[in-house]
Design brief:
heterodimer, A: about 950 residues, mainly beta, Lipocalin, four-stranded antiparallel sheet, 63 strands, about 10% helix, B: about 270 residues, alpha+beta, Immunoglobulin-like, three-stranded mixed sheet, glycoprotein (chain A), transmembrane helix (chain A), EMC1 (chain A), signal (chain A)
Chain lengths: ~950, ~270
């Protein structure tokens, strides 16, 4: 108690709400700016500027984020979310050409062109009820200025196929060609004079014929139409392996149904060349991929990559554009395992890069001589799904860098066989996360428990034994001591505070079936990642940790338990019923986890005291833990309202003081009920927040807001004796303001100070008896931007002032609003009286501008955060924060400043220098003083 | 036939874009706070927000009531798709940037998608409370091409500072510390005084010594230097308070008692 009082005093002495220091960036926080797994067809190296030779790595990811990555260090240069389509789209296209600072992306019905250097918009356009099926940039050889914006040819599918030429500068339609024949629009390709529109015409019986329509480049008029007899081979768009984009590879490639022969057609001719597939492995071909150069002036050479279960090989072909003949040039040898091929172009030469599990090789398309071969550093490498490469010829040899997308979703850059960087793009699909608990603490806790239960002498003996045993760490400790002292003077790395639980591991479960461990002490680096799901994907709902173990619960009722330090799978439990969420009962030694099904019913009953509150069928249900047949209570919102969200106080939510001391030394007692539930119900343009008691289901408080856009985010959070929520509030009454609002409500036992209401001196209370209603004080603020998710900082003893953590999706930030600012008792319309000022209250202002100092993410662009977790540390001042869902962001918040640690502001060197200076002073002065004293004694006598 | 069809349809399309879509362009001019608008981060965008007329929108269509325009190369935001919603709308126009704070605007759009007016607005004030006018549609002008292009300038209000300044160690600040100054003066006396004394003529020195013997400061210093500590009759507290040394006992300090009593009482009550 006394310690608490001291800490409270300390906490109140220091000014609250402080921003981070410049030198703490990357020291207390970490950020993975993610794009999502790069898609194989829309990833490439590109030189965005014709004046510079530097290239960037561009991708349109599976999360529909278009971004540029610096190939040197793997940092994101810029990124844009292009999923603005009105029609649902799960993949997109992006095209760009070397030397032009423009790239065009298409997702669904939304087309946009972006500046490749800095990610600024050039133009955007959308075509309702249509979706983009293919996209090409017009490469005109005879263009006067090569750097000028290139026009786009876009093929739209929908009710009818439409080919449009869009202006490169403004995105306006120059011409369009409508195909009313009912064919399946497939691809477009262009040459310097024609645009080829390739569609699939359904044949009489089954299969498709390939129809090639050539259109005039300038007017979009139809010139000529050809139909290829492919109905025996092609059963759908997926049967066509490749359609070339331009004159470098004007090809349509498909195979017959038995995968015995490859058929190649040069676009614009009727001739089909048939090449026999030489599959001597006896295994079934798993995939055939065609790799061809995309650049206009490159040689018309292409590579066909064959992959079976255990081997892979490739063949290189040359095309004679005049005679439309295709001839085989050479083979690349059959190798065990997988291969990933990529094409790169330098001048007109085409190079093929092959990455296998043990080496990287580069060949020229002209001859089979290997130009470069590098063994990979850490074989065997994980399987790469696709790769892009950039080859720089240096005389006879070459240098190459390849960005490979691995099966795990990682994106890795290899330069001449050396591993340069890895981006863990799968983390963009994080669905559940939690802090890991380390094992050794458990050991100590166990020992202390033993001591607590023994008699005093045995406990003493045990303790002495334990301390003697601890001595075995002494030499190690002594050895580390000089290093520790020196490093503590030079830097104060996070490792110095390791013992205070500052650098904890975070276990993250992603949607692609993997589990990652991020080291919070080491810039959030991935310590291990494992494929934990047996299927391709899974939907984890929760990660529950106990010392040394982490268990991932998924929505099908199955769970996987992993070792936190190694990532090894320890236990699996099979799928049961479909779950909505899981409830965790804190029961020693291991937490008890109960699944909640889709209807909000607990799947099992446990013989423990406890209550659940669940959401199901649009109502809130209250359950006793020992009965999963019938709920104790049900809360059904009024007609026309739908419950969308419910929140409660965090599991760890200690309250330092049961009352609030006012300026005149009287106390306003807080209404502290551990069983509070805040349910959000939306109606037609209104939202109602119900504060329920979880045991009895009684409504303690309800507030309704009108003129609310329910399609905009509505967030809420609760802690201690207060709750906050935000929404978009529109004008209902002429005196209303328009904007996003944040409402804070505080609960007190009584409206009068020094009054505890009906409870007064009662030491116990019951939710089932007449539960007194709280006295609610609210204040509402207009805020500048929407809040998509709210959380509250947690500290060990709840003494430190809390911060309301808000995710701001429109500026990609995370802020912590200090509670003193959000005080519902701020005086309205007048200045505070001296007693109020003593409490720290200041005048209410309806508009709450977010102060830059509240930005925990400062200048970082923290995009797509869906959930924010907060955890206490052993230091009362410090709370750990971790946000996931899109990017990964972790930081430490000190809402009342780091009052219990000597930060960087405390100059140890200065202290040391002062001591040294004083010592020197004493050494110099003491003989002088002694001499003087002696002199004086002699003189006096 | 087909050629004719395609050309007419493209013509129709061009026409329809001119008529239906009324574009609103927001330009960011260079200002003192933001000298180079092209240096804005790539994530900067502008939004037009209002409540949809009914929550049940035809599915498959994005709500037209939260329109977004990304930052273009020329540091502008272009809202191209101000389509008609069948009802006049009043939008809140925000420029979203973490680093810069922009003035919010009110944009009124007519039922046919025409921009009626743009005004500055004040957050937390009634919506009818409009600020400086930025653009108002003039009834006389009927030129369709002009109507479709509305250009307003955004205004930067402030720049957010995210970081705390760390107080730097500087020797100058050290010398501003009164404790250090006191110590330096004392040091100066210790070393400088004997030198001064030596340079004085004997007569003056005698007088000075007589003087200093009478002063309690030098007396105290001397006795402290002599290693004996403060003499028994030296009233240190009195000397600190500036009182003359007196042989009598300590003075009673009664009048202060009442003032501190309240503090003590409240402390007891709180404990």
């Amino acid at each position: 108690m006394r310690l608490q009082a001291t800490l409270l005093l300390l906490a109140s002495c220091v000014p609250s709400a402080l921003a981070i220091y410049l030198d703490e960036i990357d020291h207390i926080d970490f950020h993975h700016a993610l794009l999502g797994t790069p898609s194989s067809h829309s990833t490439f190296f590109l030189k965005p500027s014709s004046s510079s030779d530097a290239s960037l790595l561009y991708t349109l990811s599976e999360k529909l984020l278009l971004g540029a990555v610096n190939p040197r260090d793997g940092s994101v240069v810029w990124r844009q979310n292009v999923s603005r389509s009105a029609v649902a789209a799960d993949s997109g296209l992006v095209r760009a050409s070397d030397g032009t600072n423009a790239m065009v992306s298409a997702v669904g019905d939304y087309l946009s062109s972006w500046s490749a250097l800095d990610g600024k918009l050039i133009w955007e356009n959308s075509f309702s009820d249509e979706h983009v099926a293919d996209l090409e940039l017009l490469e005109l050889e005879d263009a006067a200025s090569p750097a000028a914006a290139k026009d786009t040819i876009a093929l739209f599918g929908g009710s009818a196929g439409v080919v449009r030429r869009l202006d490169g500068d403004v995105g306006k339609v120059k011409w369009e060609y409508k195909d009313e024949s009912g064919d399946l629009p497939f691809q477009v390709s262009s040459s310097s004079t024609n645009v080829f529109y390739i569609s699939l015409q359904s044949a009489l019986l089954k299969g498709y014929k390939i129809k090639v329509t050539s259109l005039d480049l300038l007017t979009g008029r139809q010139n000529q139409q050809l139909t290829l007899n492919s109905e025996g081979d092609i059963s759908g768009p997926e049967s066509v392996l490749f359609v070339g984009a331009n004159t470098a590879s004007p090809l349509i490639v498909w195979t017959d149904k038995a995968q015995k022969a490859l058929k190649v057609n040069v676009i614009g001719t009727k001739q089909i060349s048939t090449i026999n597939i030489d599959n001597t492995s006896g295994e079934e071909l798993r995939s055939i991929t065609v790799h061809a150069p995309k650049k206009l002036n490159s040689l018309p050479h292409f590579l066909v990559h064959y992959q079976t279960q255990s081997t892979s090989w490739a063949e290189v072909y040359h095309v004679n554009l005049k005679s439309a003949a295709v001839s085989k040039s050479y083979d690349l040898p059959r190798l065990e395992g997988w291969s990933a091929f990529s094409t790169s172009i330098k001048d007109a030469n085409v190079y093929f890069t092959r990455i296998t599990q043990s080496e990287m090789t580069v060949v020229s398309s002209a001859s089979h001589a290997i130009l470069g071969r590098w063994p990979l550093q850490s074989p065997p490498m994980e399987r790469a799904l696709s790769a892009v490469s950039e080859v720089v010829p240096k005389g006879d040899s070459v240098a190459v860098r390849s960005a490979a997308v691995l099966e795990s979703g990682d994106w890795q850059l290899l330069r001449n066989g050396q591993h340069e960087w890895t981006r863990h793009e799968a983390l963009a699909g994080a669905l559940a996360a939690n802090w890991a608990e380390e094992e050794y603490q458990e050991e100590l806790a166990h020992q202390l428990e033993v001591e607590g239960h023994e008699n005093i002498f045995a406990a003493y003996a045990h303790r002495v034994k334990r301390h003697v045993k601890d001595l075995e760490h002494l030499p190690e400790w002594l050895r580390d001591l000089p290093k520790r002292i020196i490093t503590s003077f030079l830097t104060d790395e996070v490792s110095n505070l390791d013992s205070f639980g500052i650098s904890r591991q975070v276990i993250v479960a992603t949607e692609n079936g993997r589990v990652y461990a991020l080291d919070g002490g080491n810039h959030g680096a991935v310590s291990w990642s494992v494929k934990a799901a047996e299927a391709e994907t899974w939907a984890p709902v929760s990660v529950v940790t106990q010392p040394g173990l982490a268990t991932v619960y998924t929505d099908d009722g199955s769970s996987v338990t992993l070792n936190v330090s190694s990532g090894e799978v320890i236990k699996r439990s099979p799928a049961t019923t479909k779950l909505r969420s899981v409830a965790v009962l804190n029961n020693s030694p291991a937490p008890l986890v109960v699944g909640i099904d889709e209807n909000g019913t607990p799947v099992e009953s446990v013989d423990l005291p406890g209550f659940f509150v669940t959401l199901g069928n649009g109502r809130v249900l209250g359950w006793s833990a020992d009965n999963n047949k019938f709920p104790i209570w049900e809360f059904l919102p009024p007609q026309g309202q739908k419950i969308i969200h419910a929140t409660s106080r965090p599991a760890h939510d200690p309250v330092a003081s049961i009352g609030k001391v006012l300026g005149d030394r009287s106390v306003l007692y807080k209404y502290l009920n551990p069983n509070l539930v805040l349910a959000t119900a939306v109606g037609d343009k209104s939202v109602t927040f119900y504060l329920l008691d979880a045991i009895s289901g009684k409504i303690l408080h309800a507030s309704t807001q009108d003129g609310v856009d329910t399609a905009q985010p509505i967030a809420s959070a609760m802690s201690e004796n207060w709750f906050a929520y935000s929404f978009w509030g529109d004008v209902v009454d002429p005196s209303d303001a328009k904007g996003y609002q944040l409402v804070i409500s505080e609960l007190y036992e009584s409206s009068m100070p020094n009054d505890r209401g009906p409870l007064d001196a009662a030491s116990n209370y019951s939710s089932l008896d007449a539960l007194p209603l709280p006295h609610v004080v609210s204040q509402s603020f207009i805020i500048p931007e929407p809040i998509s998710h709210m959380a509250v900082t947690q500290t060990r003893q709840g003494i430190t002032t809390r911060q309301l953590l808000c995710t701001l999706p429109s500026t990609n930030s995370l802020i912590g609003i200090p509670r003193p600012v959000l005080d519902a008792r701020r005086p309205v319309g007048r200045d505070p009286t001296p007693t109020e000022a003593e409490e720290g209250l200041f005048k209410y202002h309806p508009f709450l501008e977010f102060d830059g100092k509240w930005y925990l993410s400062h200048t970082r662009d923290v995009a797509g955060i869906k959930k924010v977790l907060s955890a206490p540390t052993l230091l009362e001042s410090t709370s750990l924060i971790f946000g996931f869902g899109g990017d990964i962001f972790g930081t430490r918040a000190t809402p009342s400043q780091a009052f219990d640690i000597l930060g960087k502001g405390f100059s140890k060197l200065q202290l040391l220098m002062t001591i040294v200076a004083l010592t020197i002073g004493v050494v110099i002065l003491s003989p002088m003083v002694r001499r003087k004293q002696v002199d004086q004694v002699w003189k006096a006598s | 036939m087909r050629l004719f069809h395609s050309s007419t349809s493209s013509l129709l399309f061009l026409l329809s874009t001119v008529i239906v879509a009324s574009a609103l362009t927001v330009v960011i001019p260079p200002s003192n706070l933001l000298p180079n608008p092209n240096a804005l981060a790539f994530g900067t965008h502008a939004t037009l927000t209002s409540i949809p007329p009914s929550p049940q929108l035809p599915s498959g269509h994005a709500s037209p009531h939260a329109l977004t325009a990304p930052l273009t190369r020329s540091a502008t935001f272009i809202f191209q798709n101000l389509r008609s919603t069948g009802k006049p709308e009043s939008y809140l126009l925000d420029v979203r940037s973490a680093e810069y704070i922009f003035t919010p605007y009110r944009v009124d759009v007519a039922a046919d998608g025409k921009v009626l007016g743009v005004w500055e607005t004040f957050r937390g004030n009634p919506w009818e409370n409009r600020g400086a006018e930025r653009y108002v549609l003039e009834a006389a002008s009927v030129d369709a091409a002009k109507l479709s292009e509305v250009v307003v300038e955004a205004k930067v209000l402030a720049k957010r500072s995210f970081y705390e300044e760390r107080s730097k160690f500087s020797p100058l600040a050290l010398f501003k510390n009164p404790m250090i100054l006191l110590a330096l003066v004392a040091l100066g006396f210790t070393f400088g005084m004997p030198k001064l004394m030596e340079n004085m003529d004997p007569e003056m020195r005698a007088e000075f010594e007589k003087h200093s013997r009478a002063s309690p400061i030098s007396g105290a210093t001397r006795s402290a230097m002599a290693g004996g500590g403060a003499p028994g009759n030296f009233d240190f507290a009195g000397w600190m308070a500036g009182a003359q040394p007196r042989p009598g006992g300590p003075e009673p300090v009664a009048p202060q008692g009442a003032a501190t009593g309240r503090e003590g009482g409240s402390v007891r009550r709180r404990g």
